[in-house]
Structure formats: structure tokens, C-alpha cells
Fold each of these.
Amino acid sequence: MSLFSGTPKPEEVFTPRSSDVNRRSYIPRPDLEEELAEGLTESQHLIIFGESGNGKSWLYKRVFETERVSYEVINLVQASRLGSLGAAFQDRLSRNEELEKEAYELVKSGGIKPQGVGVDFEGTWTYVKGKKEPFERLLAYIRKKAGRGKAVIVLDNFEQISSDADLCKQVSNCIILLDDPTYSQYEVKIVIVGTPAGIDEILSKSDNLQTISTRLKEIPEVERMTPNEAKSLMRLGLESALKLKVIGNSDIFYDRMLKVTDRIALELQELGLKIAKEARKKDGKIDQVVFDRATTKWAKNSIRSTCAMLADRLNSNETKAARRNQCLYACGEITKDTFTYKDVEAKIRELFPETTKNVALNVSGELSKLSKDENPLLRRIESQKSYRLSSPKVRMAIRTMLAIKEGKVVRVINDI
């Protein structure tokens, strides 16, 4: 009998790219779930924002399932690709209508007409195809599907249109139109999902700020997982579900996982999957070799391009102090989202006391250079005279590729 008979496969436990919520690896986020659920009962439309990979989609899908919300997702990549929001609505409707047609023909062949397709029945709307413009048709479609329940249009991946004034104007128009009796009768709410903070301010550039902001409510940012949430996810998947055994100090092992992934939910799932597969090759044991092999494979898959960018910015090993390397390493160790050159200098002096004692470091100059490259690792925030990493993946790349040995920054992974 197999050592793993009766246990699920790693890819059944860790499903980082799944569009559906995986109950095996979903960690509840009660405060955010409550905020979203309450927002669904209020008059305003909603904004969900946070860095890519933090779990925005699973959050709203979990809440919608719990609250029995009917919804349709409009990927704003389609609006950008097709040239208008109306075209994206039409594309979604056409796909749904084709599914309805197939279902109708399948059931009709059995002699039964499907309930509610083109037919009035108590407590629901009749959805008449082709008689309205796409936005109203989509509202009617969702209302028919929802019956008397809650109904939502999700406009996902807002960052894909945030710099397109015309598409932002079209989103604003839809929000405002939902106060018009023709459209408000369907009682459908819009939920906008994306990475930028201040989505209401972006939309207000095409309309009066008060006009938009009074109609929108932003729930708190969907941030990276807390340490407790991240450890719960990994223990649940690796030890409870897959019955794998961590060799040595498990707290140190999980702390390392949390550090290299920056507690980003998507990356935790990706790394968890790689670790589980490697561990199954070694009788279900997770040791240092398993962790290192899995981390290298994860980095090649998830942060390869960022690692290449980082490698291009490093000083050569022959440089005496390798100040830029120290700056980059220090930026990866700082946990705050924004930091000043003074924060970085303090961290460098803490980490490299021998090469920084009584020496002027010119950290501000190094940070300025790193923020002005064609593909910068840092972003300068002029209003605050501070910096932030251009992406959470930069922090992951720094923490995965670099280490301190004998007082110098060295690459510990070279074959990415």
C-alpha cells in the first residue's frame, strides 16, 4: 500500500491558480468578510483592493457563497481588449446565452421546458434577449438568475483600465446610471476589484469627486496574510491534509516560508505545492534539502523575471563594500511598505557594522539610482520623500536570492 494512500494529492490541497475557492486551503479572514457582507446590505457600491495575490477573488467568492449572492464577473481586461465596457458586457452575455441555449436544447430533447427561460414566473424577472442595450440586459440577466436574492456585477482587474480615461468614464457612468429608475429597478450592486488604492479618486477624474465617492464604499485593504493566518494555511495544507512531517524546528521552517513569500497568499500556495511534491519524493519528510529544492523551483516559476532584474543591479563580488548590494538587502529586510533613506541606512549599519563604521554611505544616491532604471526595483514617493519596492516580488526575490556570509551580501541561488 502506498505511504500516501487515503490522503489527497498536493495539487488538490494547494490550488494557487484556481478560480474556485478551495475549501481545503481557505483561511477565513473574519474582519474583511464581515466588512464585505455588511457592504452588500448597504446602498453604496463596493471597492475591494489590495496587491495582486493577496486573495481578493477568493474573499469575495467566499462571501458571495455564504451570503447566497448571484454574480457575474466582468474581467476588465476584456473591456480594454475589446475597446469598451459595453463590448465586455456583450461578450459575457453572448457566452451565457450560448450556455442557456445548449441547456435548453438538452432539456427540450427530454420533453421538458427549463424554468424561467423567456417565461414570466412569480417573484422573478423575464430575461428577454436582444431588446435592451448590453448594460441593462446584463442587469436583467443577473436579476433573473438571482430571483429575489442579492445580485452583483463584479468588475475585476480594475488596474488594467485605471490609466484609460474613457473606460474609467464608462465605469463611472454605470455607477451613476444605477440610481436611474430604469436601471435601479433591477437592484444589482457593482463591486469593483483591483490593485490600486484610491479607485474612487481615479474614477472621479472623469466625474465630480463627490458624485462618485458618495456612491462607492471601499472596504479595508486586502493585505498580505498575518503571520498567524499564513502559518495556519501552511500547517493545514502540509501537515493536516497531506500528512507530511517537518524535520527539525517547525517554527523556523514556517518562518522561512513566510519570509520568502512575504506572506502573499498566492505565493504561499505556490511554494506549499512545490514543497509538498518534493517531500513526497522523500517519504513525506520536509527537511532543508526539500525546502531548498522547492524554493528554487518556486522562484523559477513565480519570480524569475524579478530575480533577473535584481541580478542585473547587483555589484560584482569584487567590489570591496558592495554598497548597492547592502542597500538592496536592507530594503528586503525592512517590513514597512514605505521607507526613507534614513531607514535603509540604519538597517545597513545594523546588518554590516564592520564595513560601515565611521563611513559615509551615500544611501540616498543609491536609492535614487535604483528608482530611475527602466524597470525600477524602487518607486519614489515624492510627496513623502520616501520609497517603496516596485512590487512585493522584489522583496521575495531579495529574500530568496541573497544572504549574508562573512559580512558580505552573496547570492545563494544562481541558476534562476
Note: The domain at 304-411 is CATH 1.10.10 (Arc Repressor Mutant, subunit A).
Amino acid sequence: MSQAVAENQAAPGGTDQHGLRAHSDGDWANRVPVQTRSERPKSTEVDDFPAVTGREAVWKFSPVAKLDALLHGELDGSRTPVETSPADGVTAEWIPRDDARIGRAGIPEERGAAAAWSAFGEAHLVTLAAEEPVTVAVTRDGLGDSPRAAHTVIEAKPHARGLVILENRGSAQLSENVEIVLGDGAKLTVVSVQQWDDGARHLASHYATVGRDASLTHITVSLGGEVVRVNPSIHLDHEGGNGEALGAYFADAGQHLEHQVYLDHQAPHTRSRVTYKGALQGEGARTVWIGDVLIRQTATGTDSYEQNRNLVLSEGTRADSIPNLEIETGDIAGAGHASATGRFDDEHLFYLRSRGIPEEEARRLVVRGFLLEVIAHIGHAETEARLQEAVEAELASSSASAR
């Protein structure tokens, strides 16, 4: 290319390739929308992302006005009150933000996560090293009404086994990043439970990297909070890695629950399964599920499937469900996706009522069974029973408010 042509193309309003001319509003070449999931810009600096307007692809379903303090305000990055239950082979410590163990699983792709990353002072690191299975509960309760930032790192050493339950309760205005790092041969289940108070607002981005022949089960259970948005990204970047992303949620009147799930197959012979199931009841109940699966050219032999199911229990609700699948290689074992949103099945109700079960009890049984598929994967009887009771309490309170 001659210097004159190069200068003409670089100049505002100059002629581009094939005679295309830049618009007068400038930066025409950089206004092309991101075409694939992997092309999204990434940065740990909040100033690298423009202010959120709600028109962006990653924010267009979210109530951004309610999240303004977390997106554009000043966040308190000091240590959050947290309790970690003791277990053999498990350590918990606070590490500075410049520690080399931070940033291994992924970095932000949007302003909310970048704001939290820019603000936190120390990260809470939980390390599992035992090859015998252990259970660890990491509990936060009542963080207050001031906007806060947090950062958590969960690491499973090679061949470690464990279950980590992240319990979120009480009041909160929280934006956070959670990193999950699995060594080769590790097997880890991470459960994030959102049972916040009614006015809580929570933005969470979870990033995971899965080692060779390692297996991660990531489970999200969202029940409480005014606005809750939990976005897990699982990167299968080592051969033989397995990732399962499961979710259960129940939105009642005026509640917004959102989950954007990303499975990134980078290495050969990796496997993933995504199953999210939600129920909605009450005026203004809103759920959003977006599932992205990317099978890169290097991920030969991939086996992947994602699905989302929503059960609508009353009028005045809205469930958005968007599965996306990108395949860059033809050499895969299988890939697919499915999505369905439907009303309560009257035939199920008729069957149960014909056997003497009152209507409200029948509805509880159907919803409980619908969500149990996800909750039963937790593998901790006490937590599973408590969450089943919480689902039934949601049903009872929503039914009472509707009368």
C-alpha cells in the first residue's frame, strides 16, 4: 500500500477499502459489533470500559439504573466479613492484589466486573490440597447497604477433591469476581447460593480454568435479592477437562435474576454440560438466562450440550432465554442446545388433585420436583434440604401475596 493511500484511509472521511467511506461521526472502523464470544474486550481496569447505558449486548436485559452505584460509583474494596469452615487440607487467607495467584482463571469482559477488580484491596484465597473429599462453607452475612467490591480465589491443587459452598445472606450492595483454579486431575464442586435480603443487589463474575483430566461442577442457586446477576465462565483449556454448569432460580414479584453462562472449549477431548432451571411467580418477576458455548478450532473431540427450562407460575412474569453455540471445527463428538419456557402444566395438577392432593400442595410438589434436578447435584444433604425448604417458602410467600 502506498503512503498516500494509507494516509487517505487513516484520515477522517477518507476512502477505505472497496471505496467505503467513514461516517462523519468518526471511528467507523472500530464500530463493527463483536461477532464472536471470544472477541469481547478484556481488562482489569474499569476506565477501559465505557459507561453502561443499557444498550450494550451484555447489559440490555439488566435493570442498569438500579445498578448505577456498582457500575459507576466508588466501591469499598476493604475486606468483607467472611467465615470459612475448617476442614483437613484446606487453608484460607487474605492475599494482596498483586499476588501472582490472582488473575489465572480469567479477567473481566464488562464494566461491572472491572469496577470490582479495580477497587478490591485484598483477595480471599481458599486452597484445597487433600485428595480425600472435603466440604468447605464460605459464608458472608450482612455486608450492609454501601457499595462494595470483593475478590475470591478458590484453588484445588492437582488431584484434590472437594465441595466449596459460597453462602450469601443478609443485606448487600456487592460487585465481585470469583476465580476458580483446578489443577490436573482435581475434582471440585463450587456452589454459589444467593439468599440475600429483599433489597440486595449483587453482581458476580465467576471465572474457572480446568486442568488436564480435571472436573468442575459449578452450581448457582439464586433465590433472594432484588437484583442478582451471576455470570460463570468455564475455560476448558487443558485436554480431558470436564465442566458442568448447573443453576436453579426462583423469581418472585419485582425480582430480577440473571445468569450469563460461558463454556469455552479450547483443548481437545473436553466435555461440558449446562442445565439451568427457573421458576417465576408474581407481578414483575423477571429472569434472564444467556448460554454461550464456544468450541474452538483446537477443541477437537468436544462433547457439549446446554439447556435452559423456565416454569411460569402466574401472569405478569417474563423469562428471557438465549442459547448460543459457536463451532469452529467439524471434528467434534457432539454439540447441541435447547431452551423452553412454559406455563404450569394443568395435566400435572389434575393428576395430583385427582389423588386427593390440594391444589397449592400440588403446585409445590411440581415446582420442587422441577428444581430438584439441579439442587440434588450439590452433594451435601443439609444444604440441599435447606434450599428445598427455601423454594417452598418462596412459593408460599408468593401465593400469599397474590391473594
Note: Residues 1-29 have pLDDT under 50 and may be disordered.
Amino acid sequence: METPIVAPESVEEPAPPLIIIGAGLAGLRAAEGARQAGYSGALMMIGDEEHPPYDRPPLSKDFITESAPPEVLLRDVDELTRELDIDLRLGRSAEELDVAGRRVRVGGEWLSYSSIILAVGHRSRSFRTERQEQSLYPLRTMADALRLRERLDAGAGRLAILGAGFIGSELASSARSRGVDVTLLSATPRPLEGALGTQAADALVRMHRAHGVDVRLGCTITEVGASSIVLSDGSEVAADVVAYGIGGEPATEWLAGSGVELDPGGIVCDEFLRAAPHVYAAGDIVSWPSELFERRLRSPHWTPAAEQGACAGRNAVTDAQEPFDTVPYYWSDVYGKRLQFVGVASGEEMVVVHDDLPDGGFLALARSGDRISAACGIAMRRAIVAARRHIRQGTSWSDAVEELVSDPRSALVATR
């Protein structure tokens, strides 16, 4: 009797993972968004730093001012692997993307994906002088913040900061709280004017000077010595340490020729944060078409990055595509006050509606047609919340101004 031949059972190949490139805030929120949307498949996160996702805003604030560096991890490795079931691969960088083949090369190895989310963010724009480059301290990563803190802890008492944007301003405030002498340098005559408007930018400069910061406008550094720097106007400034925060550059050069559309700021996405078939993006590098503002936007700040990450994570694993749009919002903490901005200033001048309230309260609004399009405030938390609501709802200019200006007991209460 012949033994019947039994065909071997076919083994189904597991589906390729969802891969997230970038282990920052946007990447973490993308992973959480995918899991919350019901995705139970394999999920891999690749990050070029050795740290799991951490919070960057404290690096120029609490990380410098507290007696010991605060915990900034958003989730530790155990939470990422146990609660989110992430295959976490840190200290690695993506090198090439093959959109047609649905694969990405990392460390010389090609990895297949079902979908991929690009959340690589920005790298610090470099600054170089002819000598003493070892005395220059960028401030973007946790390693940067640790290095600078160690230098200040070692007794450096004179700090020069190149770049008077949000990071430079926060660092100036933090260093002054430690008793460090600070010189703040801006290559532009009015730092942050494009982001905040003329009046708010001027108010911020006045705050720096009121707290003992030597603000030098319209100049940069030409030479760095052991205990001083030479500026482009020929003056010399005493400095033990030179830190800089002069903006970032999108970490997207490895995507050239991949089929993902790039622009000078990063990645061009559609309204679903999709950059190519099965390719999504989130965070600082993303521009998207905003229906609310009727233009393409990019908002490289904490809140939009978190919102985009969650949306990209959901869209990457579901058939029900969700359009992304938001009212951009960002903030900074300086000298015990919160500076906030919401909306999009579309070239209209910011109109100051209050600058004489307790604790230096300041509020300016921008108008687009018959609508409020942006608001900037110092020590105006509740007013900014109300302004963001009015922008999102398309409230008329007159109605928004009536609430924001005429009722100081509700929306317009200056707070620290």
C-alpha cells in the first residue's frame, strides 16, 4: 500500500512592519497613533541618537537651570517595547529610500515596510570660525545640552549666545537665572520679527536688556578666542563659552531621487500627510496644504509635530484617510513669562491691542480680510487660547477683537 503524499502546509509570510524613521516627538506620536487606530502588526522605530524619544523644549530651560538635569524622556525603552511593542533600533540612520520597492536602507541593510513614516526632523545648522571650534556649543540635542551644562557647572561665568530666536532667548534667560553674564547676538536688527511681528520682537529685546543681557543686534562672530570673541563690527566681547542656536536644516538629503518631493524646508505632503504611495511624514520637515489658511504651511514646533505624528500614524495603517489641518501654535518661556504665538501672519502688521497690563502683559493681533489670522502674547495664556479658537472657527475680526479686547475679566487675563 502506497503511503499517500501529503503536501506541506503553506506558511504565510508575516507582513512587513510599519517603519518609523525618527525617534523624536513626532515619531513617538506616530507609533501611538497607529496603535490607537487598532494596528497590531509589527512596528519598527529607527533613530539616529542613542536615546529613546525625549522632550526637547526643556533642553534650553530646566535642563540648564535645575540643580540636576531633569528627566526628559517621553517614554523609556521598556515602555516602548512592552506597551507599544516597538522594535526599537537606536543609533542608526536611514541612508536610502526605495518607494517603488517599499524598502529603506539602514546601516547597509534593506528593510521592507508595509508603510513608512518619515519623522527625521532638523539637524542644527553649523557655525564655524577659523579657530577654537571646540569652544562652540550648539544646542539642539540632549548630548548638546549635557555638554553645555557641564561647562557651566565647571564655572564658566561669561556666555555668548549666537542667535536670538527661541532657543537663544530661552538659553539667555536660563543662564541669567544662574548668575551667568550673557551676551546675546543676532545677525538681524530685529530678531524674531518674521515670526512674532515688530512690536513683540522689540518687547522681547527689552525683556532681555531689563534682565541684564547685553544684546548686540545686526552682528555676528568672526573670531573665537580662549576668553573672548570678536564681532563683525570689530568689537571684542569677553566670553568663556560660545553657544549657538541659529536654526536647523532638514535631515532629508538621503531622500533625494527617491520619488518623495522635497523643497528647501523638507518634505512636501498632501492633505493626508502622504508624501508618496505608502509614505507619510510628520514633524519639522513637513509642509501641507492648509484648507483653513488657504495656503501651504510648515510649522516646525512642538504642538504641530505631535498633532502631525498622531495623524500620520493613523493614516499609515487605516483605509479611512484623515485630512490634517491645524492652527499653528508655539511658545517660549523667558524670564518667568510665557511668550505664545498662534495662527499664520500673512504679511499683515501685528496690531498691538494691549501692552500695559500687569506683569508686562502684551497682546498683538493680525488680520486677514475680515478674520483674525494670528495672535502673539506675553503673559497672556488665556487670551491666546481664545484667539486660537477664534482662528479655527473663522470668527470675524470685529467679534474676535470684541472678546479679546473688551472683556479683561475673561479672555484677557494676564497670567504668568
Note: The chain has three domains: 18-122+249-317, 129-247, 336-406.
Amino acid sequence: MTTSTPRFGVNYTPSQGWFHHWLDFDPDQIRADLDSIAALGLDHLRVFPLWPLFQPNRTLIRPRAVEQLVQLVDLAGERGLDVAVDGLQGHLSSFDFLPAWTATWHRRNIFTDPEVLDGQTRYLHTLASALAERPNFLGMTVGNEINQFSGDPHPDPDRITPEQADAWLRRMIDACERGAPGRLHLHAEYDACWYQDDHPFTPAQAARIGAATAVHSWVFNGTAQRHGAGSVAVGQHAAYLIELSKAWAQDPARPVWLQEVGAPEPHIPPDGAADFVRTTVAGALDCPELWGITWWCSHDVSRSLADFPELEYSLGLLTNDRRVKPAGRAIARAVEEVRTGWRSPAPRSTALVLDLPEAAAKRSTCAPGGAFFEAFMRLTAAGARPAVVLAGQATDPAHLAARGITALVAVEDVEQS
């Protein structure tokens, strides 16, 4: 069991120009943004190159763009901030960013086309190699929630099988590892991989491929709508995803990174954002093997930019003129409390048994409203600290002992109120 102090960071959304800032790269603006982030006591950033801007042609990876990414990493390092870099962007805040060489007249499947795969691996390897000697470079994430391109509800998906998703992930992670050996290279999906029946990206892939498991916790997925902003289910959703992910891990000590979590309006009212931060952080910190928490996001999206979903404009810990918001103050307090008095959480000794086969085709029982999800939340509301164990591991004494599990509970034995 890990005893290291969890990391606290932020997904960096530039205060000026959002991720379009790569088109008008301004080191002075970035310095000011990073100063405002460091002032919260955070220790790392997750940053997002836009794939079409960095690789506009399959055989052209723009040297100047790569230099600017390295410069951003160096500016962060000057402020004591480590940096994780996402590669294939991919999808951000409801917008898709795919290179022209994958779309329309050049339309080809981004997960299976041999030439696209060659271009992707060259790109990821190039970014990782450029950063490999930077001491504050944490590692690469293959892309941001790129699984959303693989099926519904995407309007134009590149459909694949779970076997094809597995092969794609392994090839992309290998490219990152060859570029920067030994760093924290991983992949990250939105919660369809945990909740959506027949989704080609699976829980086993999320929990077994790469150096850590990433979870993205968003309560607008039906949790807040069903249970309400101040509910146990909303406050514990991130902890639930962390524990759910651990059920699929083969290594009981595998780290889990809460890589995205935020307080979306109106699902979380503005006057409840600080409470949501406190409850969510406390729940996540009560999960063994937590690598860290990376809040979404650093700065609000400017109202001068059009066509974002309404909730995207107010997710920052800071305003887009760099004033600290209540959620930002709550994060800063949490950071200070952890760093002055951290004690690793005790094992979650009671486990709720998840009876799903290895392929996990019908995983909607784990989604908000599903029988497994609701049973977990009822246990939590009753004061328990449930872990999750797969039925196939529930009869393995060595696995249970490694996780500190001493009691098992079946879903059907959790009484409904």
C-alpha cells in the first residue's frame, strides 16, 4: 500500500484564448497563469497540445510547436510545478480537434488505419522524447477521453472492437515509453468505459494498461440529476470511481489518478462549489492507492469565446482574470491540510462484490441508477467505506489479503431504503 502524500494539481486551461493559446503563444501570459496556480499550493499541471496544430500533416510535426510545449514545461518547473502532457487532443470541452488528414476527404479510422497509427505513434514519441530530460516532466497521457470517438453518442464515431481498442492503447503507450522511458505514461477515458454497455474501451484496459489508472469524475452524468447536489452519491462519486477501478486492477498496489474532477453548474450551484470540493477531496483521500487529484480546471473560459456548453464557462478554480474563486480557496486549504498532517487511509475492509465477467459488456449496473452503483452509495450513506471486488477475485484469499478486505457484501444483501 502506498504511503506517499497524494499529489494536488490542476488541468491547465489558459486564461487568455483557452487552448487556442497555442496559436498565439505568449510566455508572459503563461507565466502569470502559472504564478496564480502555484499560489494555490498545487504541485503539478496537466497540459493539452492541440493535435491538429502540432501535427497538421501526417508527416509534419511542427518543431516550433514542440519547442513551445517544452518552454511551457520549463516555465512550470521554474515555479515548482511538474507537468503531465496529453497527446492526442482529440476532444476538449465538447469540441473535437482532429487533423485534416483523418477527416472528410481523408476520412479514416483513427484507431485502426495503419497510416494514422504510424502518424500517431510518431507524434507521441516526438513529444515524449522532447521532454524526456526535463526533471519536472511527469509523463504522457495518450489523449483526453479519446474513447468518445469510438462509439455512441459521438455523431460520427470510428467504431472498433475491444480487441482493437486494446491493441491501439498498447501501441500508443509503447510509443510514449520509448520516447521517455520510466515516466508516468497512461491513458484516460471518460466514464463510458466504466458505465456504458458494450463500449469498446473496457474497465480492464483502463486498470491494466499504462503505469496508473486514470478516472474522470463528472456528476452531470446522471448522478446529480438523480440524487441532488448535496447527496452522498454526488459527494462520493469520485471515490466510487476510484474504488470501482481498483476492482479491475491485477496489481493491488496500482496507483489511481483522479485526473479530472470539477464542480459543474448548475448541477453544483455556485454557492455549493466549495462544499463539493471539500467533500469530493475528502472522499478521494479516503481511498488507498490514490496517486493524486487534478482539478478541472485552472481558469474559467472567457465569455468572449462562443459556443461552449454553459457549464464550461465556470469550472475554473480562478476566474479568467486570475482571481481565486471559493472552489480555489477550498482546494488551497485541502492542500495545506494534507501536507501538514497526512496519514494514509486504512484499508477499505468491506468490499461490495461486482459480478461481471472479464469482458464487462453489460456494465450499466455500475452507472448512476444501476443496481451496483446504488448499493455502493447506500452502504456509504450508512457509514461504511466500501471497496469493490470482482466476483472472480472474491474467492482468492491472497487478493483479498493484499487489499485488506475482510468482509464481502452482495448487492442483493444491501437493503433499499
Note: The first helix runs from residue 27 to 38.
